[in-house]
Amino acid sequence: MTDPRTVGMRIRHFRTRAGLTLDQLAAAAGCSASQLSLVETGKREPRLSLLQHLARELGVPVAELLSPEPPSRRAALELALEKAQQSATYAGLGLPRVRVSKSLPTEALEALVGLHSELARRVDAAIATPEEARRANTELRGWMRERDNYLPEVEEAAREALRWGGYTSGALTHRSVARMAEHLGFTLLHVDDLPHSTRTVTDLANGRIYLPPASIPGGHGLRSLALQAIGHRVLGHDKPRGYADFLRQRLEISYFAAACLVPRDAAVAFLTEAKKNKDLAVEDFRDAFGITHETAAQRLTNLMTSHLDLRVHFLRVGDDGAIYKGFENDGMAFPTDSTGAIEGQPVCRQWPARVAFTRRDRTTEYHQYTDTPSGTYWSSTQTGTTTTGAFSISFGVPYADAKWFRGRETTTRTVSRCPDPSCCREPEPGLADYWSSRSWPSATVHAHVLAPLPAGTFPGVDDREVYEFLDRHGRRDAPAEAETSRRT
Hints:
There is one protein chain. Helices cover 47% and strands 11% of the residues. The chain is of the alpha+beta class. The chain has 4 domains: 1-71, 434 Repressor (Amino-terminal Domain), CATH 1.10.260.40; 74-93 and 108-126, no CATH class; 128-261 and 472-488, Arc Repressor Mutant, subunit A (Orthogonal Bundle), CATH 1.10.10; 296-424, Beta-Lactamase. The strands form 2 sheets. It has a 6-stranded mixed beta sheet with strand order 5-4-8-7-6-9. A 3-stranded mixed beta sheet has the order 1-3-2, sandwiched between helices. A hairpin with a 2-residue loop joins strand 6 (366-372) and strand 7 (375-386). Helix 2 crosses helix 3 and helix 2 (22-29) packs across helix 4 (48-58). The longest helix is centred in the first third of the chain and has 19 residues, at 106-124. The two termini are 51 Å apart. The relative contact order is 0.08.
């Protein structure tokens, strides 16, 4: 419905054009001048009968009075200023509101509206503090926990996209992913000059999704990257309204990609059979769908509770013991900071996520039971390495549900008393007595601890680099580029 302020402005515009005073039009339309004044200032919404009388007296259709467009440039500026001064951002500045009157020059209105627009732009692009980001991430993790890490609407979106790609069974092929993109009007193109601040770039104007070179190792990653870019379109994402919205979108496209790489129906059938045989294993699930160990473990958190009635936990931990990401709905007590965030928190040295790093043979999954203050848990852990260091992926369940998993027969068992500091954080008294006054370690300060979070509509993205990249590729001959893509 048209904003009452706009309706009032249009009535006043046509009244002035007709040479009528407020009293004259009110009398002709059968209402009081004070009532009409309230209508023209947008403080009262007119009844349809009054609108019909006003339209008749002004010699215009009712639809003309209800048009959502301001009647003039001046009116549009007045509306923009009023709206801007009602924003929480402006209210937070504690400045007085400028009264819009006939005596206010149009040039002044232009300047004020321009300043408010720039203020809004800077607020939208403002850098989120680490505390804000951690709180947003914690809220998002809590939201997912309430849903047992399962998003049925994204599952259905992935199921429909798989139909576009012609998927039937087995591992999802690159060709099927390309067909999904084609259904949405996009071509997948591999380039070697992607902006450093991006993983993919989508050209909405020319229907192209740019990906890293097809020849780089890790085809699983390329499929996932393409699917995440496609996910933005399938899920109808708009530009993120803030850092929390950005995180939610990232979560949804990652979920979408995983749901395409590991289709729900096929995955549930596979897991149900394995549970029946008491032979559930992350590595089997991984190999059946041609995905990474981490993707397999995370996908299990999506499906185990909703379809197999098992509560679970998942952790990715660095070789320094810090948590990168995690999920639990089985009561496993993750360490948290004052905001409830788990990222960066050290896990107990007795947990399998850290014990696994002490093993000589890291080629196979490591199984362990851990007694904790919140109960006993079984876990399967696999380690890996990246250019930034080693990491472990742990997937586990409460003791009673270990019976469904391969590796339940392990005799390895540890006891964790964390968060009691005497468990694994405090040094031995003798060592502390001797070395506390005889040492001065120089701490390693990770760059990300001091760096502000990236700014921009898409945090961390260098807009100039991206737009120059798109302009560079957008001027190429599209058929020739498409042919190059087919050859890769």
